[in-house]
Amino acid sequence: MDQPVFIAGLGVISAIGNTVAQNRLSLEQEKTGIAPIQYLDTEHRDEFPVGEVKLSNDELAGLSGFKRGISRTAMLSLIAAREALTDTGITNLAGLRTGFISANTVGGMDKTENFFRDFLSDNTKGRLRNVVNHECGAITNLVADQLGIRHYVGTISTACSSSANAIMYGARLIKNNMLDVVIAGGTDALTRFTLNGFNTLMILDKQPCQPFDANRRGLNLGEGAGYVVLVSKRIVSALKKELYCSLSGYHNTNDAYHQTASSPEGTGSLLAMEGALKKSGLQTADIGYINLHGTGTQNNDSSEGAAIGKLFAGYSPKMSSTKAFTGHTLGASGGIEAVFSALAVQRGLLYPNLRFEKQMEGFPFTPETRFSMQPEIKHVLSNSFGFGGNCSSLIFSKL
Amino acid sequence: MDKLMADLKEQIIEQLNLQDVKPEDIGDDQPLFGDGLGLDSIDALELIVLLQQKYKVKLSNAEDGPKIFRSVRTIAEFIESNKIPNA
Amino acid sequence: MYIKAASNISPQNTFGNQPYLSELAEYTGEQLTCIEPEYKTLIDPKLIRRMSRIIKMGVATGMDCLHQAGINAPDAIITGTAYGCLADTNTFLSKMVQQNEDALSPTPFIQSTHNTISAQIALLLQCHQYNNTFVNGGASFENALLDAMMLLYEGTAANVLVGGIDEITANSHAILKRMGLYRRFPVSNFELLNIPGEGTMAGEGAAFFMLSQEASGNDWAKIEGVSSFYKPRSIAEIQQHINTFLLTRHIDINEIDLVITGNNGDLKNDTVYGQLQQYDFANIPAINYKALCGEYPTSSAFAMWLAAHEIKNGVCSFVPQSNQIPLKKVLIYNHYQNIHHSLILLSAC
After folding, report:
1. pTM for the whole thing?
2. Domain range B2-82, CATH class
3. pLDDT tens per residue across span A165-194
4. Both ends of chain B: CA-CA distance in Å?
5. What is the ipTM of this complex?
6. Ranges for the Carrier domain (chain B) (predicted)?
């Protein structure tokens, strides 16, 4: 039953580019996507920098092929999911048991916010078309219909670990011989709801964030979508393109400490990383690069740091948080970072932890500060942790 | 000051939806967090909102919370010392 | 795989030590509303103060289910909810608009995330195990159930807590009503399916199940399978799905003792069930369940509770002529707005 699962395609759109190639270039050139708010219509426009996708809704409609007025969450999703599917070289899905497992946390909230402005004063007002795709699942359906996928459609929402869980679930559907091909990952658009929500928690940085830095002040929100195409061994021979890597390990745990805060010792994170290592049959020393959850908040980074410090004690793993480039894209982050991780392991890319200055107290490791090529990287660990204590880790391995 | 503390107790119970707690159950100097009333970090954020809405007093740094929110008396003192005169 | 315990808060008297559907609750109008228990004895008061209605319903049924099963450390907690915590979402969104993004309270935002219920149960239990939440419209519960069954099959879990939860709020009801989901004229839930028309009645509920790989000798029923399919193009395609579903489980359709279908009284919605009842399900005793709980995306969790109960009792209490037949296999077929369709098959232990 435990057949391997391979990654055959990648697609991403984020603050640092609209394609995989553009994202990779920005990572290599150390070019951040964090900037003052340009597109989101909010009172906090000049207060918080964010990682917006640098396209207006009309431009995204043009690029995605969706008609105008569709939620930004769906448009971002379609652009990245289609890129991932195209990347595999699979042109005909007929005959392949194909699934689309997409995660998100906001659904069509960007449109619902507009609807509520009119609806709140008079509940017969407000355009229904703005609220018809409010549900998280509706976003997945919109994109599945455009991709022509009907065999299995699923949506997961576990806060900031959502799309890591979508990838894990997709891999298990393949291992259980239910599907041959799964486009798995997630999407989230920046919305007033999430910006204001994180603002009430007082964890937004008013400057570009500094993950894993002693002087970190909080996170920058971002937006985007990221998908990997998972394929079973059975169909690999039919693919004309070289595979990126395998998804060798994964694990999902719960910190069970607090609804929003992570435990000081990083119990959930540690269990997630240990579980993923066990699943892949690897040792701590085998991990060549850790793509940190690294949001830039005091709490996350010290908790994740404590877990890494314990698990990797005696080793010197290379690590960075790419959220300094993209911002924290919430339900999309596990998907976007899975794309970065797959590229890292295939090409030996080591991404910098931008703006890192000072080592965290009590944390024995220093994140990477410059981009470099490290062909010896064989295995990459990617962490995604979230509200509600949801912790998931994925491991990508060189073929 | 006594009036302010009495008001605060009622407002805290309402804002935090404390079950089965009456204003007289909260001592002026009783610790609100930890072993006292058992409040946590989310409650601290709620108290920040309370001060902003009811008393127009703004706490810009969440890290000041523990000191200010130690007891009803410390909150009242903070409000008194930050009130805009004649507002 | 076995259903070791089940717990259900619904518009009927289904929670706690109630005689099984002995007195049915009647609702006239547009919606059926959950009959809620006193939560204070069920949930820690320190946690309850932040919980909105759906969270209390979900956590109470989840905890009750664990209690019934005598398990306080499940190997996984999985939930399905289409809309998530709507009341909290509504509160935060409304205040954000009304207060122009200023001085907002964090609690409704924190509690609005879709994984709140599974997270709160984990927190109450101090359970570090697998924890997942599916938000897939009318297949949210089915996704969760499939995930649970895969975990048991993979051998990574022995006991999994799985539930389906959705709530109605005043605003969600007003919006869905404007979309034409509900009846324009008041009708009783007892008459809803007898007088077909345009629209249905809204419903809500929270139902949790304790699934185990091993039989305990005291289980409610066995789960033979779950399958969901998306936007079938024709009745033939639906029939094909049902056939394949049964075939892969080596079951002939005539072995099914009872079919539970998701008719909701809306003419367009019920066309599919009508066609299946005319052909595929023609010779099988059939009952509907939405007169009891109303229509909502995770209503199949209510249907599974009903099916498990019927099997546990051994005879179908709603079909007089089948009183003599011991109930061995029960098939649930439901679709939500013709988007997600699903099949769940239970059998006697």
Report:
1. 0.97
2. mainly alpha
3. 999 999 999 999 999 999 999 999 999 999
4. 17
5. 0.98
6. 2-83
